[in-house]
Design brief:
Oligomer: single chain
Radius of gyration: 23 Å
Distance between the termini: 93 Å
Helix content: 10-25%
CATH architecture: Distorted Sandwich
CATH topology: Glucose Permease (Domain IIA)
Number of domains: 1
CATH class: Mainly Beta
Structural class: alpha+beta
Strand content: 15-25%
Largest sheet: 7 strands, antiparallel
Order of helices and strands: HHHEEEEEHEEEEEEEHEEE
Shape: globular
CATH superfamily: Glucose Permease (Domain IIA)
């Protein structure tokens, strides 16, 4: 009987070791795919916001588009991003009346970031440097739909707003994203904001490489013909969403998609940018959209 127990215990121990080894191998195979990862959670504060749906109602391609999908290679994500608007357009800012406004630096829309990463990557926004602590403004009336700390992520502290067609005057729903913020915003999800409201301050938060990142706002625009969107605790995913060159957002009329913007003749690539001045005036007065920093006219 004792011999049988010893044999049984030995076999059982071998079985446990083999099982753990198998699970470890599977975890390695699926590293970054969500296997053994933090559990995603539905946003309880989002429930009463127009258009909010479960994550299951939004295609996984949108998660790959926004760049936070745990599975798939960098090249797979980049391929989806290009199909959904992340291509260079060569648009230029031309601030109305020659105003002095914070400018985009070399970190322009849709430039290839692969040389800065360990895998294929694109810059899905524009960077606007400003001194640390400079207030960042809501570009239009809207609703706060996300506040993320993004620990261990290059984006750093983030806030995201949702804008209806009535609020922007555009024929679709817009999601404006502001990252590298100094502090997590005290504006809770569901808060209504007005164009020009301060929604955060400038910094350089987020995972960095070998160099120290300068203080700057990373500003991005996603849009969708559908009012539906999801929030899984990590990212906001508009149903059937596309990225837009943030400069295109300020065009007076369509089209707005990146292919059309790329195909514009050079003399049409300069876009008049509306803005708010430091005394709270908007230029033009009737605008529904402004630059994310105040300007001096």
């Amino acid at each position: 009987m004792e011999l049988f127990k010893k044999i049984f215990n030995s076999v059982f121990l071998v079985f446990i070791v083999m099982s753990l080894s198998s699970q470890y191998a599977l975890a390695k195979k699926h590293k970054g795919s969500g296997f053994f990862s933090a559990k995603k959670t539905e946003c309880s504060q989002c429930q009463d916001i127009e258009g909010y749906v479960s994550e299951s109602e939004v295609d996984d391609a949108i998660r790959k588009m926004v760049g936070k999908y745990k599975g798939g290679s960098g090249s797979e994500n980049v391929s989806i991003q290009k199909k959904r608007g992340v291509i260079e357009t060569y648009l230029r800012t031309e601030f109305i009346n020659g105003a002095s406004c914070p400018e985009i630096d070399s970190e322009k829309w849709a430039i290839d970031y692969s040389h800065k990463r360990s895998r294929a990557a694109l810059h899905k926004g524009i960077d606007i440097p400003q001194p640390r602590g400079t207030p960042i403004r809501a570009i239009s009336d809207g609703t706060v739909v996300a506040n993320f700390l993004n620990k261990g992520n290059r984006k750093g502290i983030e806030i995201m707003l949702r804008h209806t067609p009535e609020q922007t005057g555009l024929p679709f729903w817009v999601y404006s994203q502001y990252t590298h913020l100094e502090h997590l915003s005290n504006l809770e999800v569901g808060t209504k904001v007005r164009m020009g409201d301060i929604i955060g301050t400038t910094s350089n938060t987020g995972k960095m490489g070998r160099r120290v990142r300068r203080d700057a706002l990373h500003f991005a625009i996603i849009y969708s013909q559908s009012p539906d969107w999801a929030h899984d605790g990590f990212v906001v995913t508009p149903k059937d969403g596309y990225f837009m060159d943030p400069i295109a957002f300020y065009r007076d009329s369509g089209p707005y998609d990146s292919i059309s913007m790329r195909n514009l003749p050079d003399h049409d690539k300069g876009i008049d940018i509306p803005y708010m001045t430091s005394d709270g005036q908007t230029v033009p007065e009737s605008t529904k959209k402004i630059w994310p920093y105040v300007c001096e006219s």
